[in-house]
Amino acid sequence: MKYLAISVTAVLTALFSGPAFADGETIAVFTKNQTNPYFQAVRVGTETAAKALGVKVIQYVPTKPDSIPEQLSQVEDVIVKKPNAIVFIPVDYKALVPAVEKINAAGIPVTNITDRSAGGNFVAFVGADDYSIGLSVARRLLKAIGGKGNVIILEGVKGSLTSTNRVRGFNDAMKENPDVKLLASQPANFQRLNALQVMENLMQSFPSIDGVLAANDPMAVGAIEALEGANRKALVIGINGSKEAVELIKSGKLLASGDFNGFIQGCIGTEIAVRNLHKQPTPKEVMLKPIVIDKTNFTPYEMPVEQRACPTLEQIVSN
Amino acid sequence: MNTAARTDVRSRFTLSRDVMQAFYRLLGVVLLCAMLATLSDVFLTTNNILNVLRQSALLFLMASGLTLVILTAGLDLSIGANVALSACLAASVIKITGSPLLGMATGIGCGAVIGLANGILVTALRIPSFIATYGMMWMLTGVTYYYMAGETIHGFPPEFRQLGSGYLLGVPMPVYVMVLFLLIGGLFAQRTVWGQQIYAIGANPVTARLSGVPVERRLVLVYAVSGAMAGLASLIILARINSAQGDIGEDLTLPAIAAVLVGGTSLFGGSGTVAGTLIGALILTLVLNGMNLLQINSSWQPLVTGVIVLLAVWIDTRARRIGE
Amino acid sequence: MTVVPLFELRGISKEFPGVKALDDVSFEIRAGEVHMLVGENGAGKSTLMKILCGAYRADRGSFFNNGEPVTIHDSTAARKFGIAVIFQDFTLVPYLDIAQNIFLGREFSSRLPGFIDRRRIHAEAKRVLDMIGFDIDPRMPVHGLGVAQQQMVEIAKALSQDARILVMDEPTAALSDRETELLFAMIARLKKNGVAIIYISHRLSEVFALGDRITVLRDGRNIASLLPAETTPDQLVTLMVGRPVDTTYTRPSRPTPGAVVLDVKNLSGPSGFSDINLTVRAGEIVGLSGLVGSGRTEVARAIFGADRVTAGEIRLFGEPIGGSTEISALRGMALIPENRKTQGLALARSVGDNIVLAGLRKLFPSGFFFPGRAMKAARAIIEKLRIATPTLRRPVATLSGGNQQKVVVGKWLNADARFYIFDEPTRGIDVGAKAEIFRLLDGLVHNGAAILMISSEQIEIVHICDRAYVMRSGRIVGELAHHELTEANIVRLGIHQ
Amino acid sequence: MSTRGFSLAVLPVARVPGVAIVLVVLCAGFGVTSPGFATPANIANILTQSTILLLLALPMTVIIMTEGLDLSIGAVLTFASIVLAVTVIATGSPTLAFLAALGVGLCFGLGNGVLIAVFDIPPFITTLGTLGIAQGLSLLVTDGQSVVGIPRSIEQIYSGTAAGIPFPIIIAALAYFITHALLYHTRFGTYVFALGGNREALRVAGISVRGMLIRVYVFGGLMAGFAALLMTARLNSAHPTAGIGMEFDAIAAVAVGGTSFERGNGWLLGTLLGVIAVGVLRNGLNLLAVPSSVQVACIGALVIVALFIDGMRAER
């Protein structure tokens, strides 16, 4: 029986150590997983903004990364709690439409960021255009290799909106450079290890590779490791502008990274949600400009997200 | 009787059935290679072969420890999560102290401790290994997520990275590590008293206990070893991808289990070899390598892997029939 | 007089790859008789029965039901003729209740297709259980029952199929004396109802106490069918073994007891024994007798360190031990458990693996294992104990009961054990092999070992042991010195007054 | 050990408490700490969320009772739901689509059963293989995309209510009672106990062990087909990753529920409680806004604690 007591207390302490609600407005933030730094940047963004605006945010992340049913359940649970507003990144832009409709039905204002949901009513959408980022960052690389040579594309998770659009951007950039040959376009699921191994295998088939277009930074890093492991040289670009990528740009290992600024998306998404609560006018859509981070302009990105300050809506919209 | 005696003076203690299976499996590898060689001209190049070996190293290191667990008719579903946590801790230790050795100690140590915990859950608390390690998997993942908070640790000193991406005499480092632990594992299982006792426990724990085998202690040992190997594997990953992230160990567990099973170790315990597991790891790696070389739609990967697992084990059951 | 046999097998032959299991065996069974089927292991008893109940198909031979020629190609056909078998290892499902077990595969349907009528099943089961005078709630799950009760359920199961011919394979092997009496009483009742019983046994006492007729098989051939009155135990054994054997093994000489090897004081344990005091000296074979379930095995396990003890102390060679089978083994204690297959051997592993298992630490103090040396050690044992096996690599499961038992003992010779606990060393072993096992015990004590022997066969205790303790319901109720060691005394102490 | 009749046949004695205790503790804890928890709406919410897992856990209980395992059930659910979605979009007939989904379940169940019963491949390995196959097929059919454009009629199955009770709960309740009846009141159920407890007994009774095994896995496949219907209705779409890992959740729920992996010692009600316990835990933690990482750890703790308690009970 002693054991029983122990274990029970163990559960209790394990369970009820969660933070309690603060008064004032609460905003529930939904992100895809706890492992990808991008979403961490988003979360930090929302929290920074919340601090500035004097509201409280609560993060909801599926315990299984990118789990559709689980995000759906979390939405259902949150509706029971009735937060004042919701900032929402759907795990899958189509499959989560029912969740959005549930939120709408519950009359909770919801702001969509990063991945544009295929349905439902939103206060606004804040995002960066994957396609144009892919396009511009790819152009940057193709220019660097002099408009000719052999290129490999590392795709993200098959069918994910992000991957599809970014790769579409890559391909359109390729079309502009007829002399560039696409050797292979293989998915590495946005993951380092996959990218590393796929790259290693592809290098066996292709003796000369001039450029690698990776649909996110971790895959770019994987590719770089693979190239270094085989003592081969090729220019690599990634997307997200993560801390890691910036350092690699600084050290010259990574040519460039498309700035898909999760931090700012978090900030603006939260700000719009709050403004909407305060009956202030809000834009229906905010699209971050596609910025290519490279040797020339990486300095501002060196500052860790935790220390950055949110830009105001005006700043973003104006420039 | 005498002739019989003479014939098995040289023969090993293992049943002939095992030899048979090893043969079938090697045959499988050869066939697979032959097929790939005909389909892709680059397959048989030294580079690619070394490349395949390097990639199989990771899988093998995880699977080799797991083999011992499965030999005792147990299972360890936590190795993937174990790799993740060990990698992240090791990574931050290297970052903070700048000492690769300290980091490596942390990685392996962390893995071993987790394994130890599994062993205790299974022996002292008598929770079925399947469930105990499943629960452990969740807890470890939670700790990892909490610790990493979605961040990435990256950029390790070159001397550490040698472990993953370095070469010695033109052969990648991980391959040496793999061979080393193939020998150690093989010797441990086949040529030590503990190894023999582990086989006995797998075959019949009651008998083992009533023959003076400290079953609980050996089980704890086995899980600890499995954990330590996961820790080691985590170092290889770190050194290879030069960074640690919370999801690093995701979907590494089932492939490792598959490697052990394809390697001919029985889930019911008592029969199987570490060498077999190496072959299993090779088969699975070859498939992925071949698919990349032939640029086959990656959607085929799970399907093909599944079919191969079924085939391998089916051939086994047939081999057993013939063996008996 | 010419009685038409209830069922008859004529000229049955059955070959397995390499062995002629049955060779032109004829066998008949009459209504209301108990027909004893005896023979050494491998004589073909179980093969014959498997053919009778349709599990095997005979290569040659014919069947007659009440004189009518019939065929038995599968178990359902056998059941049609009312033939039911009660196997040694029961065919019961632990987490179904008694009633469901009795009617397994013959459930009464309710109106809904596929559904079963539990109420009817329970009622019918109750009726059958009453018929055999077994008073128990048919809704009890089987996993809670003791061996004897499970056997009763098996019998009920057989009778519920209105069996006219009941085959019992060593039914008393695991029964206490009182349970055995109950069983015999029931057999008598069945006889009255005209049920014929084929009874396979290794216990001569039963054969003569119970049998109306005796059929002896040897090497797959029907050696003799005779009436108990016409023969004596010794003749019968000679028929079974093919050479004269003294059934009651007598020890040529007994070494004079030496120093105390095992000293147990006030031992009590949760597994159901308390305040146990016993000593065993070097060169002694000490019996531990009493009914099945009187706590003998529990005491043995506790002494060996396999079960927890709550009080008392165990000293081996003066050193206190307990709680760890590993320590016990290292200090030279050995346990030959009552159930060879599940506790004594790793059946799937080779003979060699099994023989070296217990001795690993002694044979390879360095901790490194050398197959060559292990082979040598194993072969030494095999020759020493005359274990019949073609190679060391043969799975131990393929050996005969006697040889398996020798392997279990041999296991400990490598560990140079000097104190042995034998728990039912002769269970399921045929007469010829029994003598060998006893010779083995004798040899051990002559080399200065000490032995504690548990046996349900008082006759064995009487002939083999120098002293004996008798247990009853978890306590030692008496110690019998050599001169007072008689079956009568053991029984008097062993059963409740 | 109590010896009062039928109950014993249904409850493995040593097992009863673990899951029940945990569930009570959780409900009490959350009831006190989180105002929103004990509301009818939320309870309905929890139960609805648990339905899909329950539909997998029920057959999993039966399969585990036969000393088997089905790792493919999650992937089969996924593939079935994709086939369902594709069919309904192509033909516009929900009935046909549902039959197609059941067909997928049937095929995989049959495949598992045959591989296990006829080819003697251990269940774990068989279903690990078929898991890969189902997953691969899902990816190949969808190329990683979600399948959308399903008529509302299907969504109704999840969101609709009858007499205030959500359809999913009604379906799950039906499934539970059907499984209960199957297990405790039919030949099938009786033989399931025998498959795990003593196969020899079945052979002697002249019942085909292979046939029974195949039936058991087919049952699993069909239930996966039903679950696919709910899943598709819930997401109003089908996605190749929707059911990934659900097999392990189901197995955990069964184990937490006190069904042991040996000798056909199963307890269906425990499975139900196990599923609900997991649902309550996740829901409660979300209401308390416990960080996701802590939630992950808690799920692990739940599994271990429940079995730990059972272990303690089993000791005495």
Work out the radius of gyration of chain C: 24 Å
- The CATH C-level name of the largest domain in chain C is Alpha Beta
- Beta content of chain A comes to 15-25%
- Following the backbone from N to C, one meets helices and strands of chain A in this order, namely HEHEHEHEEHEHEHEHEHEHEEH
What CATH calls the topology of the largest domain in chain C is Rossmann fold
Mean pLDDT of chain C: 84
What class, by secondary structure content of chain C? alpha/beta
Distance between the termini of chain C: 47 Å
CATH architecture of the largest domain in chain C: 3-Layer(aba) Sandwich
| Silhouette of chain C | globular
Biggest interface, residues from each chain: A-D, 45 and 60 residues
Helix content of chain C: 25-40%
Basic shape of chain A: elongated
Give structural notes.
The complex is a heterotetramer of chains A (319), B (324), C (497) and D (316). Chain A contains 11 helices and 12 strands. Chain A has a 6-stranded parallel sheet with strand order 2-1-3-4-5-11, sandwiched between helices. Chain A has helices at 2-15, 37-53, 68-81, 97-105, 130-144, 161-176, 192-205, 217-229, 243-250, 262-277, 313-318, and strands at residues 26-30, 56-60, 85-88, 110-113, 125-128, 149-155, 180-187, 211-214, 235-239, 256-259, 285-288, 291-294. The N and C termini of chain A lie far apart (67 Å). In chain A, helix 2 (37-53) links the parallel strand 1 (26-30) and strand 2 (56-60). Chain A folds into 2 domains: 23-129 and 262-289, Response regulator (Rossmann fold, 3-Layer(aba) Sandwich); 130-259, Rossmann fold. With 319 residues, chain A is an alpha/beta fold. In chain A, helix 2 (37-53) runs parallel beside helix 10, helix 3 packs parallel to helix 4 and helix 5 (130-144) runs parallel beside helix 6 (161-176). With 324 residues, chain B is mostly helical. Chain B has a single domain (15-319), classed as Orthogonal Bundle (ABC transporter involved in vitamin B12 uptake, BtuC), CATH 1.10.3470. In chain B, a hairpin with a 2-residue loop joins strand 2 and strand 3. In chain B, helix 4 (79-97) runs parallel beside helix 6 (129-148), helix 7 crosses helix 11 (215-241) and helix 13 (274-293) runs antiparallel to helix 14. Chain B is globular, with a radius of gyration of 20 Å. Chain B starts with a helix and ends with a helix. Mean pLDDT of chain B is 86; it is low at 1-15. Chain C is an alpha/beta fold and 497 residues long. Chain C has 2 domains: 7-241, P-loop containing nucleotide triphosphate hydrolases (Rossmann fold, 3-Layer(aba) Sandwich); 260-494, P-loop containing nucleotide triphosphate hydrolases (Rossmann fold), CATH 3.40.50.300. Chain C contains 18 helices and 20 strands. The longest helix of chain C has 16 residues, at 177-192. Chain D has a single domain (15-28, 39-309), classed as Orthogonal Bundle (ABC transporter involved in vitamin B12 uptake, BtuC). Chain D has a two-stranded antiparallel ribbon with strand order 1-2. Chain D is globular. Chains in contact: A-B, A-D, B-C, B-D, C-D. Chains A and D meet through helix 1, strand 2 and helix 3 of A and helix 2, helix 3, helix 11, helix 13 and helix 14 of D.
